[in-house]
Amino acid sequence: MSATTLLDAAAQLRSGAVTSVGLVQEAIAAADRFDEELRVYTARFDDTALVAAEMADADFAAGIDRGPLQGIPIGVKDNVLTQEAPTTGSSFVRDPAWEQLRDAPVVARLRASGAVPMGKTSMLEFAVGVPERTRPMTEGRNPWSFKHWAGGSSTGSAAGVAGGLFFGAVGTDTGASVRLPSAFCGTTGIRPTSGLVPAKDVIALAYSLDAVGPMAKTAADVAAMLQVMADPPPLAAGGGLVDYAAALGNSIAGLRIGADRRNHLFGPRADPVLAERFDAAIEELRAAGATVVEVELPNLREVNDALMLTVYSEGGAVHHDNLCEQWDAYGPPTRLALARGALLSASDYVLVQRARTALRRGIEAAVRDVDFVMHPTAATAALSFDGFNLEQLVGVVFGHHWPVVGWPAMSVPMGFNRDGLPLGMTIVGRPYDETRMIGIGDAYQRRTSWHLERPTAIADVTESRNA
Amino acid sequence: MPEESGAMPEESRTMAEDDDFVAKAMSDAGYTPSPGELAQLTKLYPLVREMVARLRSLAGVEEDAPALVLDLHASDTPAQEH
């Protein structure tokens, strides 16, 4: 692509250096070159994207500017309804509700702002499965190494941004499904405050945990997307119009950040350079003016229990009828996860939701002296497909606290491991404090260039084909 | 008062009862797992009960914690003005 970031592309569109049709043609060419390896798309919208790009260019020519997303190619995770193609959740299960050709509100907002949907992006089946060789659409590969997984469940959204197939993407996050692939692919992604972005016409996994969020190269890029995707906050949280770009370029002096090193850096699965990279990120934030102190998040095991039991119960309810009628169409790991909901009672479910209140109180007490929290997004870089199994994920994925309590969290790249694979850092804010959270990510990215590095596997393919 | 279908008291279970309970829960739900899948679910069932038991003993739960209800307000509200 001729631009590196979404906002670079937006600037080039306004300077006349590129057209939207030109960007879409580049995106199509990139998909033609790389997607056989990457498996970003479950459906491509080449023709409608070109028409939308022509309209965006016509608007520019007429002096109509709908904001930074106008004319920008984006991807949409395949659990979000779009008018161009049925929604599959990367599954063979079919449901008439998902096959309707209409835009989910979040897609309608992006389209109204001039963004150009390029296609539906691959994911773990219904956001709860695992990569399966028999289901290639669940096995999205990493632009930094095709032998490694891109993470999930918003697999294609992250891989497509990193691989240069589009500039931004819609993802969803129930456990860590925006943040984990963002970390594995070296991109930036936000899980917003629960409820901030509408989840209507999105295939639910767990109603009380799901969040729809933006994924792109930089904090400034995801701010531009969130500006369009978000509802106004509720009146109790201030209401009114929020400018998610308001803290970009600002100093973070005076902000207090709690870094949880103890729970996240020293587990048996930790990458050998994880602590070194995370401590370097702490020093960058200190150099940018923030006060960083250590905190210790409580109840990691119980948080994971609450997350998984809620997924079993709510996901089992979402999929009950289809599990009855189409059991064999689900991937085996997916149906076994969802069927566990039938092993839980109503009183179990209420107990879990009461435990979430107790967990929230524990977190609030642990971080009461800081404005934000930071921790590595995962213990490792991307996992290899060789011998991949569920056990490999145990102890690798961090940040389950935030969906359990509904707080916003964003993952930003924080360097590479010794194999040249990206590592990610998560920054967490209190509910509806996305603007300052994005400001911290931006402050870090103004001092580093990890987020602008070009994926090596993509570069290798380009060089070999140009040779 | 007997606990409703979907769970048994942790302290009184046996492995045979787990087998029976999981098979009945799948049947009642209308699911059709293979024998191998049923065996996997049966093996997992004690772990699920352990997870529930851990949360039951979490500090603050038995005193006064109400169920967490997040403000998932977004569905019916308009977009921001841009």
Secondary structure: elements and pairs:
The complex is a heterodimer of chains A (467) and B (82).
Chain A: H1 6-15, H2 20-38, E1 41-44, H3 46-61, E2 73-77, H4 105-112, E3 116-121, E4 141-142, E5 145-149, H5 155-162, E6 168-173, H6 179-185, E7 188-191, E8 211-216, H7 219-229, E9 256-259, H8 274-287, E10 291-294, H9 300-325, H10 332-339, H11 346-366, E11 372-376, H12 401-405, E12 409-416, E13 422-428, H13 434-447, H14 456-466
Parallel strand pairs in A: 2-3, 2-6, 9-10, 9-11
Antiparallel strand pairs in A: 1-3, 4-5, 6-8, 7-8, 7-12, 11-13, 12-13
Helix pairs in contact in A: 2-3, 5-6, 7-13, 9-10, 9-11
Chain B: H1 15-29, H2 35-56
Helix pairs in contact in B: 1-2
Descriptive notes:
The complex is a heterodimer of chains A (467) and B (82). In chain A, helix 2 packs antiparallel against helix 3 (46-61), helix 5 (155-162) runs parallel beside helix 6 and helix 9 (300-325) runs antiparallel to helix 11 (346-366). The model of chain A has no long low-confidence stretch (mean pLDDT 95). Chain A is globular. Chain A has an eleven-stranded mixed beta sheet, sandwiched between helices. Chain A contains 14 helices and 13 strands. In chain A, helix 4 links the parallel strand 2 (73-77) and strand 3. Chain A is an alpha/beta fold. By secondary structure, chain B is mostly helical. Chain B contains two helices and no strands. The longest helix of chain B has 22 residues, at 35-56. Chain B is elongated and about 40 Å long. The chains are: A alpha/beta (467), B mainly alpha (82). At the A-B interface, helix 9, helix 10 and helix 11 of A face helix 1 and helix 2 of B.
Summarize, please.
The complex is a heterodimer of chains A (467) and B (82). Chain A is α/β, with parallel strands linked by helices and 467 residues long. Chain A is 38% helix and 14% strand.
